[in-house]
Specification:
Strand order of the largest sheet: 13-17-12-16-14-15
Number of helices: 14
CATH superfamily of the domain at 249-466: Dipeptide-binding Protein, Domain 3
Strand content: 25-35%
Largest sheet: 6 strands, mixed
Number of strands: 20
Shape: globular
CATH architecture of the domain at 249-466: Roll
Distance between the termini: 38 Å
CATH class of the domain at 249-466: Alpha Beta
Radius of gyration: 25 Å
Structural class: alpha+beta
Length: about 500
């Protein structure tokens, strides 16, 4: 954790902290990932007229020559908008009310020309403006109809005066060793039962386990290797809880690579991997096999997607068809698999490499410090690599990860999510329509087709959704898991003394 300011969050830990000390207009922490109202009490669509400047060519004849001048013309254009009403009991942690001016400040500061927020690009793509229209009413003017709005406004509101949040906790201390929080006495929701919470930053997984078993820590969420969980849960002080997750582990393939640009090769790789065996051996069964980005519990999941189970015979047939017959040494091709330096992820990469070897695909695993690894991924300097996604709360991630405009381009869009360089005009059209379609059944149908297009073309190989696993001291009771592994469950947790 480096900050609790949602504008400058750089990783999932920052975002989770921001949502503990802050509250958004909506919150995506429900079992089916359908956003719920939080600071907002009403969202009403409307339409406004904007006066927008356009540069128009203006021909001017000078003798036998024509000069093209340019002039600015103001044109009135309709634009979709949403009127948002705020609840009247929401207060920041200093007791000041949450007003429309604070919502305007939060969003406009992200969109400001000098903003350093990583969210600036996404916000500027979505909104013309976010302005207070009353003490507790806000108008968001959109650049186009936006079906993702209720998820997009799950963004913590900050006080324009103090930059404090309105969440269940208040940040007291944040440094390289820990974050210390106390309960916000003015919180409008369920009041936290535990007055003070400390997050300790411990990199060594063995040290984290010793702290829990020894009683100096009360909770570890997704911080223990899943193949060790069954042994740890037998300890007398430890309680285990687990639930499905929306975070996907996947094998990416560079679709521009001469060997991998053939879909048949990518499918052969998918059919050579025994995902069930890996989940059993490395995760203790605590992972759900994936067929796409979205997990089965997601409201937009396409239930008719078929799993790709291991089939070495079919993999061999596909490689033959693609022009990669078995050579005298038993191999068909050689690939390099890049991964981070995390020991657990390296071990999984080596298993996958060995399984691909069974299909005649020789794989060399190379591990790198994360910054180097990620830089290679963004520039396309890889053949195979494995990573995990962000919280897949919104099916619009099919746009972020697969739309052709999201292919990273140095100097233009270096942080684009389509790092596998996949391009499909059919998919582009589906996800463009999906983010504009407000009608939920129609939108679900669009993402059904988008999921099938990606399943068919296989630009990446969805592997599994690793379960969220929380280990707690048995004295800590009432903590609940969310599918996106947020820490909002702390609100309902309480420490129960075990002494008589």
């Amino acid at each position: 954790m480096t900050t609790s300011d949602p504008r400058f969050a750089i990783n999932s830990h920052d975002s989770k902290l921001a949502r503990l000390v802050g509250a958004g207009l909506t919150a995506v922490d429900t079992p089916d990932l359908i956003p719920r109202l939080d600071i907002a009490t009403k969202l009403e669509p409307t339409e406004v007229t904007l006066a927008l400047p356009f540069v128009m060519p203006f021909p001017l004849r000078l003798g036998d020559k024509v000069a093209i001048l340019r002039r600015i013309v103001v044109v009135n254009v309709p634009a979709p908008a949403w009127d948002i009403t705020l609840r009247d009991d929401a207060k920041f942690s200093d007791g000041a009310p949450v007003l429309a001016a604070d919502v305007e400040f939060t969003y406009e500061s992200v969109m400001a020309p000098d903003s350093k927020s990583l969210n600036q690009k996404a916000f500027l793509e979505r909104w013309w403006s976010v302005k207070a229209t009353g003490e507790r009413t806000v108008r968001m003017v959109l650049k186009e109809p936006l079906a993702t709005l209720t998820s997009d406004i799950d963004f913590s509101i900050l006080s324009a005066e103090t930059q404090l949040g309105a969440g269940p906790y208040v940040l007291r201390t944040l440094d390289t060793e820990h974050a210390v929080l106390r309960a916000n006495p003015y919180y409008f929701g369920t009041k936290p039962k535990i007055a003070n919470v400390e997050f300790k930053f411990v990199k060594d997984s063995a040290a984290r386990l010793l702290m829990l078993v020894g009683g100096s820590a009360d909770l570890i969420q997704n911080g223990v290797r899943l193949d060790l969980v069954d042994e740890i849960k037998t300890r007398p002080r430890v309680h285990l809880d687990s639930a499905p997750s929306v975070i996907l582990t996947y094998l990416m393939m560079n679709n521009d690579d001469p060997l991998l640009k053939d879909r048949r090769v990518r499918e052969a790789i998918a059919l050579a991997i025994d995902r069930e065996a890996i989940v059993a051996a490395k995760f203790g069964g605590r992972a759900r096999l994936a067929n796409g980005l979205l997990p089965e519990m997601h409201w937009a999941y396409a239930k008719d997607l078929q799993p790709r189970n291991r089939d070495l015979a079919r993999a061999a047939q596909l490689l033959d068809e693609a022009g990669f017959p078995k050579r005298s040494d038993g191999t068909r091709m050689s690939l390099v698999y890049k991964t981070s330096s995390d020991a657990f992820r390296i071990s999984i990469a080596r298993i996958i490499a060995a399984q691909l070897g069974d299909a005649g695909i020789s794989v060399e695993v190379r591990s790198f410090e994360f910054a180097t690894f990620f830089a290679d991924i963004k520039t396309g300097t890889y053949q195979l690599a494995s990573m995990q996604t962000a919280e897949l709360n919104e099916p619009d991630y099919y746009y972020f990860y697969f739309h052709s405009s999201r292919v990273p381009v140095k100097g233009v869009n270096p942080d684009g999510g389509n790092r596998w360089r996949y391009r499909n005009t059919e998919l582009d059209t589906l996800v463009e329509r999906g983010r504009r379609e407000i009608d939920v059944p129609k939108r679900k149908a669009l993402y059904h087709d988008a999921q099938h297009a990606v399943w068919r073309d296989l630009p990446i190989i969805p592997l599994w959704h690793e379960d969220n696993v929380v280990l707690t001291n048995k004295e800590l009771q009432g903590y609940t898991l969310t599918a996106n592994a947020r820490y909002i469950g702390l609100v309902n947790a309480a420490k129960i003394s075990s002494s008589p």
